[in-house]
Amino acid sequence: MPNTTSRSQGRRALVQLLVGVVVAVLGSLSTGVVASAQESDEPTDTSVTGDPTAEGTDAEPSSSETIGGTLRTRDEDGEDVFLEGVTFIVTDSESGDEVGTGQSDVEGAWRVDLPGPGTYSVQIVEESLPEGNSLRNPDNNPLNDIAVQTNTDKNVLFPLGERQDSSSSTIRVVQLLVDGIKLGMIIAICAIGLSLIFGTTGLVNFAHGEMVTIGAMVAFVVHVTFDGRILGIPGTNSLVFGAIAAIVICGFLGFLFNAGVWRPMRSSGASLISALVVSIGFSILLRYVVLYQYGGRNGFYRDFRIGDQIDFTYFTILRKDLFIVVITLLVLIAVGLALQKTRAGKAMRAVADNRDLAESSGIDVERVIRLVWIVGSALAGLGGVLFGLTENINWEMGFRLLLLMFAGVTLGGLGTAYGALFGSLIAGIFIQMSTLVFPGDIKNVGALIALILILLIRPQGLLGRAERIG
């Protein structure tokens, strides 16, 4: 009885600690987002028409819809030049009423808050363009009937200058292949943890996508809060420190989730169906807690909002995308070597292959599972940071990536890290290549079609192992 009582008290303490850490992390997210919102209200970014001295001018906008963009051109050397002080006028397409005006800042960025979803027109005041700059298509000014949905930051584009010679040797198929490899590697770095958790515990963790979201948001908060400098040192890239913080926090949360929830459920003999339902509940809970704290508006890493392209003759790639490919490749190679060469990696593979045999061989299975949760969650956090470099950061970004992670894991073979890597690459390539046939809005259909076709031929996945049933 005393042992049972102390064990139950220990479990309650772990659960309380888990809840406290989650609340503290999400509280810090809201604090960082508030600071970011205050910084984004500078007059150079957006000025809404009306009396600036009236009460409520600085109050938080009641709507979460905005419209904006970035105005830039290129000089004779091909370098980007951002145009500051250019005025934009936004009007309601239905009523014709002026909604607001905005001016581009030193980075060429401008944005106007909207009263709600609807259709709008955007006009650029040509007289405000710096000398020597003109619209490429003056007949398309203003841009009419721009549909803005709920909780959306809509971006519009006004091309400037003469049209460049389009006789580029870029081949679209090669370009889509490169883009697919980049997307597949991001999916892979997130999906490896999902696959290892399933392999060692049998749990399909639907809350894994929320680790991706938390990782991206932790890095976003650090990046925006320190605004490009750490410890008062100008020029330091705070996103690097944000990524480190995201990896540490997500790894710690993985440890707490295992210790406070999943290990007690395994010890009490809970079925995998029960654990699956709990993971779905955690996914929904975390997603909407993040929505409550962060809001529905999109965020972005300021220093990486716009990037320079590198031309490789047959394809082009942004510098930040090249950085993503290099980092993911190095991390995936390190994970593969760790699984092959280290004792912990061999133990993970042994537990995933046959848990009972591994335990009878003297391997501490619970210790291996704990390490898998830490490493898998940390990799998901890093994947969230990299995914945030390619898309806007919002409360459901991890949930949108979760389907692609499941597709990659299933394609490669459930429970195998190498299968997750291989399957994720195939999923990413099929997603991008499918735009040759399908519209871009439904490009994820390509990965699902590939999943169906491969599983019809090889139900265990590409690198999975067939098992006898019955």
Question: Can you describe what's shown?
Answer:
This protein is 54% helix and 11% strand. It is of the alpha+beta class and 470 residues long. It has 2 domains: 67-155, Immunoglobulin-like (Sandwich); 172-457, Orthogonal Bundle (ABC transporter involved in vitamin B12 uptake, BtuC), CATH 1.10.3470. It is elongated.
Give the biggest beta sheet.
4 strands, antiparallel
Radius of gyration: 25 Å
Report the helical percentage. 40-55%
Report the β-strand fraction as a percent range. 5-15%
CATH class of the largest domain: Mainly Alpha
Q: How many E-type strands?
A: 11
CATH architecture assignment name of the largest domain? Orthogonal Bundle
**Unreliable residue stretches:** 1-19, 21-62
Sequence-ordered SSE layout with sheet pairings:
Layout: H1 2-39, E1 66-70, E2 72-74, E3 80-82, E4 87-92, E5 98-103, E6 109-113, E7 118-124, E8 143-148, E9 153-155, H2 172-201, H3 208-226, H4 238-267, H5 272-294, E10 309-311, E11 316-318, H6 319-341, H7 343-353, H8 355-360, H9 365-390, H10 397-412, H11 417-433, H12 445-457
Parallel strand pairs: 1-9
Antiparallel strand pairs: 1-6, 2-3, 4-5, 4-7, 7-8, 10-11
Relevant terms:
ABC transporter involved in vitamin B12 uptake, BtuC, alpha+beta, 470 residues, Immunoglobulin-like, 3-stranded mixed β-sheet, disordered N terminus, 4-stranded antiparallel β-sheet, elongated, 11 strands
Short overview:
Helix content is 54%, strand content 11%. The protein is α+β, with helices and mostly antiparallel strands and 470 residues long.
